[in-house]
Amino acid sequence: MKADPTPPLPVRGKPLQPLWLRATHWINALAVLIMVMSGWRIYDASPLLDVTFPAGITLGGWLGGALQWHFAGMWLFAFNGLAYLLLNLSTGRLVRRLFPVTARGVLADARRALAGRLAHADPSRYNQVQRAAYLFVILDLVLLGLSGLVLWKSVQFPLLRELLGGYEAARWIHFCGMAALVTFALGHVVMAVLVPRSLLAMVTGGPRSRRPGQETAS
């Protein structure tokens, strides 16, 4: 009697969140945390508004220490952010996951979310509110970087300084961009708590997609 051949091992598909995305995401989160907390200490040395940040939530201890932390976070953010963008573009993930997005689609998904009717059954697809939010934060981070260059090396970047409306205008842009980033981060954390599997996927990679032709398990 002829023995049955050994069945082939099951072929696993790609993870929902690839390793490079998870790595750059968490490195970016660390870099942003360093820059925001040290930036609050720098802001306190010359505030734009009649408010300052409590010392307990700032980083650096004093202006010189905060500047050192800020520059360290800046280089980490710059190199990691560049890697993130290049990998997203080269793999096609940026276009595939964040487009198309329209004002009508964003408003429609926002209404569904407020009514509690926005589905999260397919974690591989972003709704249009998510797409708009992620595109916004990418642009916001770019603007923070550009305005930060003006604040750091104003004389060396005269054209950029003028495009942003001058040094003082760049300070306001940097401050408002920081406020928008913190608001996004808080909303991001809230959504991760409400949909915990999205956070789990950013840690473990999440469920793996099946390759074409792979049979569905019964």
TrEMBL record:
One of its GO terms (biological process) is respiratory electron transport chain. Its main location: membrane. It comes from the Bacteria. The chain crosses the membrane at residues 20-40, 69-87, 132-152, 172-195. Residues 17-205 form the Cytochrome b561 bacterial/Ni-hydrogenase domain. It holds the Pfam family Ni_hydr_CYTB. GO terms for molecular function: electron transfer activity; heme binding; iron ion binding. The keyword DNA-binding does not apply. It is found in: Cell membrane. It is a multi-pass membrane protein. Keywords: Cell membrane, Electron transport, Heme, Iron, Membrane, Metal-binding, Transmembrane, Transmembrane helix, Transport. One of its GO terms (cellular component) is plasma membrane. Belongs to the HupC/HyaC/HydC family. PANTHER family: CYTOCHROME YDHU-RELATED, NI/FE-HYDROGENASE 1 B-TYPE CYTOCHROME SUBUNIT. This is Thiosulfate reductase cytochrome b subunit. It comes from Castellaniella defragrans (Alcaligenes defragrans).
